Amino acid sequence: MSDVVRWAAFSCVLVPVVLLMCGQSFGGAAGTAAGLVALTCACRALLRQSERTAARLSAEQSVPHRGRHGRTGGGAHRGGRHQGTSGPGDTPGSTSGE
Question: Which end of the chain, N or C, is less packed with Cβ atoms under 10 Å?
């Protein structure tokens, strides 16, 4: 971005100088310079805003989506079983291997 701003500032100085060399009045050259400065400032602000937006979107895309409530892990809702709980048909204290 800095190169663009440097070239814009250079043109804000160069254009009025060329206008004066070609016979334009000082007031006309000064008005042109003021217009170019205003345009350069507006473009610079828009460019900075778009860079911030692009950086924010890039940062959001690099973070993985964690789901509806931001939970991670298996848990009972993910089909996992907790240790020490009995499944269907199991009675507490019984062993299923016998």
Answer: C
